[in-house]
Amino acid sequence: MDLLNTLVDKGLRREPLSRAEALAVLRTSDDELLDVVAAAGKVRRHWFGRRVKLNYLVNLKSGLCPEDCSYCSQRLGSTAGILKYTWLKPDQASEAAAAGLAGGAKRVCLVASGRGPTDRDVDRVAGTIKAIKDRHEDVEVCACLGLLSDGQAERLREAGADAYNHNLNTSEATYGEITTTHTYADRVDTVQKAHAAGLSACSGLIAGMGESDEDLVDVVFSLRELDPDSVPVNFLIPIEGTPLGKEWNLTPQRCLRILAMVRFVCPDVEVRIAGGREVHLRTMQPLALHLANSIFLGDYLTTEGQVGKADLEMIADAGFEVEGAGQTTLPEHRGGGCGSRESAGCGSHEGAGAGCGSHAGGGVCGSAADAPVAEVPANEARTDLVAVRRRGTGTDLAPNA
Predict the structure, then answer these.
(1) Is 65 a catalytic residue?
(2) Does residue 323 contact residue 52 with C-beta atoms inside 8 Å?
(3) 142 is known as an active-site residue
(4) 3-class SS at 144?
């Protein structure tokens, strides 16, 4: 396809796509899908080789959020049967992080439900960051705490945070249909605060909430303008007890096209498959590694993910390798490692993000491990695919990592 040849050339030269070209990727046919994946895969390999960065979520405070984000199981009014607990102590969070790091994770994403942190909350998180870095000197730490007030990003940076996640989630035009307790502009402002403080900005989207192709292109182009180092792509997992609990709009093929479009639009940034890969990509997950260079390991904030060992086997079987602590994530022109663009750069929460792919998506990512794909009538819950997390942080059971 002439289109794909053009997009590959642009990706290798970091030339911006037009909106028409991005829309065309989303509108390719299933017959063209492998060609699309192969083309975007050339761009992914050019900038990131065959490395896959592993990220690990630690849910510092679960549930009881005053915001009304429709996709989130921790939202105001949610009746989802998720774990609810207040702030973990630094040693508890450090112990939880250690499980993910032992499994090969390079980055720990510290997430807390809520509109945004108080200054006391920032102090708590600072203590947690210190406890983790005292034990694991080389670990990258990304905080995902919601909307930031003036000066808080700087304090997190001083405390040792490397990155901050806050997702845009959807297009500005449709944002008010998803959330009413804060605005799209509030989210943009927080990403800009993180940038200005020298933190590596991490900001992405949630697909599958009923948005149009145009909405997807809008949010990805907005992200490109913000220039985050990492773009997490979350796929909505409809959870019973949330307003979007019956929205099953995605197929594996559409998920792959979305990832390819993001890769073409943002060729040299870390594209992370965040919440929902197990649920919506299912057996097509290995193909997605040709598009994204980063995933979450193990469970998510409020839902279970694929078994950690299966994640590692999938990476190896697909011919990829786990990115080591001594390897840089981003290309040299973006700084290579993790930190501010001037000093180090960064590669990589449903705050969706799903957690560190995003904070807002705190409960829309994950799946039951090894769950069969059953025929289920439309608009009914998929309990065969979605399992609420009952292990790891906030429980007495061992984590999945």
Answers:
(1) yes
(2) yes
(3) yes
(4) strand
Q: What CA–CA distance (Å, rounded) separates 185 from 274?
A: 23
d(CA 74, CA 266): 30
Catalytic residue selected from 44, 51, 107, 109? 109
Active-site residue flag, 72: yes
Considering 44, 51, 69, 187, which one is annotated as catalytic? 69
Element (H, E) at 120: helix 119-135
Phi-psi map region of 152: left, alpha, beta (phi>0 left; psi -120 to 50 alpha):
alpha
- Which residue out of 51, 65, 124, 356 is catalytically annotated? 65
- Could you give the 3-state DSSP secondary structure of residue 67? coil
- 365 as an active site residue: the answer is no
Active site residue 144: no
Q: How far apart are CA 288 and CA 274, in angstroms?
A: 11
The DSSP code for 140 is E
Backbone angles phi, psi at 120, to 5 degrees: -65, -40
The tens place of each residue's pLDDT in the chain, 401 residues long, gives: 799 999 999 999 999 999 999 999 999 999 999 999 999 999 999 999 999 999 999 999 988 898 999 888 888 788 877 888 899 999 999 999 999 999 999 999 999 999 999 999 999 999 999 999 999 999 999 999 999 999 999 999 999 999 999 999 999 999 999 999 999 999 999 999 999 999 999 999 999 999 999 999 999 999 999 999 999 999 998 988 888 888 999 999 999 999 999 999 999 999 999 999 999 999 999 999 999 999 999 888 888 889 999 999 999 999 999 999 899 999 999 987 664 444 333 333 333 334 344 333 333 333 333 334 444 445 555 667 888 888 888 888 888 88
Q: Nearest 5 degrees, angle CA 192-CA 194-CA 195?
A: 65
| Active-site residue, from 51, 187, 202, 255 | 202
* 272 annotated active-site: yes
Residue with the two structure tokens 């096209």: 257
CA 354 and chain centroid, separation: 6
Distance CA 115, CA 292 (A): 29
- 197 CA to centre of own chain: 21
Residues 6+ apart with CB under 8 A from 378: 248
Which among 171, 69, 163 has a CA at the least distance from the CA of 113? 69
